[in-house]
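ARCHIVE CARD
SHELF: 3
SLOT: left
DATA:
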Amino acid sequence: MVGPKAPKDPEKKRAGFYIMREKEIFGAPQPDGRGIQFLYQDSGRLINSAQISGNIQDEEILELLKTTQGFRKLVHSIGVRAESETPGEKLEFVFQMYGKEDIYGGGTVFSAEVPGDGMEEKILLSQIPWREEDKEPGQIRFCFPKSGHKAIVSVKLYVNDGFSVPQEEEEEPADLRGEAAEEMISRSLVSLGNPYRLKKAMEKAKKGEPVTLAYIGGSITQGAGAVPIHTECYAWKSYEAFARRFGTGDNVRYIKAGVGGTPSELGMIRFERDVLRGGEKPDVVVVEFAVNDEGDETKGVCYESLVRKILALPWRPAVVLLFSVFANDWNLQERMIPIGEHYHLPMVSVLDAVSPQFGLKKEEGRVVSKNQYFYDMFHPTNLGHTIMARCLENLFEKIDKSPAGADDRDNQLLDQEPVLGKAFEQVRLLDKKDLCSQGEISQGSFRYTDEDLQFVEVDLDTVGSPEFPYNWQYDGTRETGEIQPFTLKLTCKSLVLVFKDSGEADAGKAQVFVDGALRLTANPLINGWTHCNPVILFQEEEARDHVIEIKPAPGEEQKKFTILGFGYVL
């Protein structure tokens, strides 16, 4: 009889730190039936995760996380744990490095099967065949056998000998009950503003009349960090709170129109398409661009233009300004609050609610830690989204108990001079579907339609819908004849070009000419991921005739460039 082999000597206890600690994930539907949760690590995200989840402050360690070379010097192995809600399920863990030239296709990709029973699976970096093309840690993926499944996961980086990391601290579960939590939520109220419009919507709902709540913003409004994205996001949770408090059944409706990585510069262009679609007339519009508008070229004019555009709608919807927060305790509310005060708008600041208590100990009044609130450096966890919803619910409660406010149907709000500007208040979208009668288009060699677009979960969808599907694409891989420019002739005051950003190696630059002069060379690779990029071509006081020509930049003729659309002001 042969007995079992003697076990190997156990590995010595190795120091390490978390980059994900007990985070919820959800398998978003894929064409092959699987579910995948994407977790991006580039652009400082990995560093921030190490700071928040691993309490890493050592500048040497943080610097090493910027590149694949540094990552390999620092990390001995990766420990992955998953607790699946589906018994017996195994997940695939994938770590992808981005390449120097070919971002998505050039770097090392390694994977491991992870049991869903909470047991740790370790991946040794010394056993991975690394590629010379590696640039930086790019993304993590958790793959489920079927879509719609959920799990709680942790990812820990074990460091090589010679590196020292802080000891792990046990976190007590966050408790949103009690005096400290109530104080935190109450700090979020910046102003009730003039409650007239919001109270009008509440009274309609109480009577059983149809009422619609709409949300427009960036990725936080899209639901990023929420698991699952459609029912755990702040928009849905705050909508539910409104419907419970004021509705009489199913008379309160919901519109979610968040697009990741985009500022109000794009929000103002897509407002009619994404919020007023199909003749919708929202009674309440929540505007959330406080962490996205660093990319607004006008530094607030686009934001104020969007606010005015909504306020001017004939049915007079209520506008609520919501100021979310990044993990570095930053947003742009100082720029936006004066606009809210100017138009007497209700305002809610999540920064004011959560940031003051992050630095406290539990016994000093901390309700939630940064690790518990943030999914990554940009987006809230389910708990974070719940707190955001509670902040809006607090506003709803205060407005409900407040005096009626002043009737603002005399239009004095919009007759007054703006705070920063209103140049784009009348901006409209121009694309292949929504053409402008005052414009003339010759598509030239931009005769294809790009289908590899940014996809966004709308309303209660878990499957994304393409942003700007009615586009013009130049595809140098298919062009054989003489290249003809895309030409737009339009009489207008202002014009915004919206083009596709990409991380693909075949994306190329395009030159944009306005009235014969080179205005800019649009580079779709600067941001390194697929999303929509607005840029102002011109902004003038009076409308006049303009000719816009777009063509591949010299040396880029064999690549691709996509015009998603335009925003114009007549």
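SLOT: right
DATA:
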Amino acid sequence: MKLANLAEGVLVADQILVEDLTALAAQGVKTIICHRPDGEGADQPNFEEISKAAKKLKIKAHYLPVIAGKISDNDVAAYAQIFSEAEKPVLGYCRSGMRAASLWALSQASSVGLSAALSAGKNAGYDLSGLSERIAGANSNSSGLIHHEVVIIGGGAAGVAVASSLLSRNSKLDVAIIDPADTHYYQPGWTMVGGGIFKPSTTVKTMASVIPSKAKWIKAAVAGFEPEAKQVILEGCRPISYDALIVCPGIKLNWHGIEGLVETLGQNGVTSNYRYDLAPYTWELVKQFKKGKAIFTQPPMPIKCAGAPQKAMYLSADHWLKSGRLNDIQIHFYNAGPVLFGVKEYVPALMEYVERYKANLHFSHRLTKIDGPAKKAWFTVTDADGNTSMLETSFDMIHVVPPQQAPDFIRASKLVDAAGWVDVNQDTLQHKIYPNIYALGDVTNCPNAKTAAAARKQAPVVATNVLFDLNKGKQRAAYDGYGSCPLTVERGKIVLAEFGFGGRLLPSFPQWLINGQRPSRLAWILKERILPPIYWWAMLKGREWLAKPIKLDADK
């Protein structure tokens, strides 16, 4: 948590955690205002968790969520009302503190003065100059527009990888990465955290340590796009122009998409490996679980790493089997989809483990509602004719995977298809309408698995094509849809699923070394010991081991 003083009795901060509230209470904070929509980040506690903890400390908590850069007049009015009635000191927080600072400036500038509001923001570390025209009621002025050859939105796996791939090909390229986060996560490791294999600390580094040294890091959130003007608009109304734009902000976890979930996450036996701070809770539940009903859920596709929901089940069941508890535990896997895994060649090996663990499979069952204290869950069941019904069931432990979608600022843009994903050519990853825009990673509508392995193969393709478009490269490249899902079926063995578009098998190794359709000890070693260093020291550094792009004729 990074605190800053804006004015007397007014503080702003980046994302606060439950454990920060005691320190805030000790500093005299009486009111907190959350300006960050739930589910915006994978390391973000929901407001309900913050609110409950704040209430115990006699801190009043308000929820005024604002999409980054989309502060409306109604938001400003709502903030002014809360602020005027709030007991001071007041703390506003969001991902970086920018929305909190902006709302204060927009609502208070008339009383404190424009110059004082901007100065207060500057002293606290926030550039609010982009708000000056709005506060003054003047027309925007684009003088002093910042420009970069290549602008990358998102500093996750895809963003850092594509930046490194670009700079490895042309070290003099002017590349900027826009991302407000201070932390970078190795999210494929969270399943292993939930299985007691990795420590959480091994899956996290500072953003500053992974951004390529030759790239410029703009620590801000994107508010919107003006593709016709070749500009992105940052939070605080600051425009950035580009020659080429690469969009890869990842995916949003919609925790609110399941009624009652945000109120019970991290307690009452309700957990999820899809959040950094909850994966350790999964392992605690698994270790302590002696008998009863354990449920594992999977939402409708597309989702990040489609195999992760069942991986949590296999690792849990393996622990219960080896500790002699499995006979007292009933395992149920509820999948909103119609099959266990989308590539049929891997299903037989997985079914062997389903049978070993005596897991009950339920297809076309979508988790709709959960009541943590009552230990009940409700599923919407769809039959073969499309008719739906509601199923109520009890649980003693439940691992939940939330529904997922593109980030809000992406869904509200001109870049998306009807389903809200960035609309790209699946082969070149070039936008279908705006030729100087590319996208990769989880945010695209590309019909491939949304995995870090896919981003690793996509990054060199995008880098090659962007350089060609900038007349700094001699060829174009194509993406074959490659994705990988190391299915951890037990501690020490993995079914290494590797496939491309249309479910075509794309093994990286000869069958005599690793047969991806059978559980393998070597695949486990690859997942546990080799892939993390490859991620940190190859993928994020532009070293394209087993990831060289497929060359295309330049005129395609």
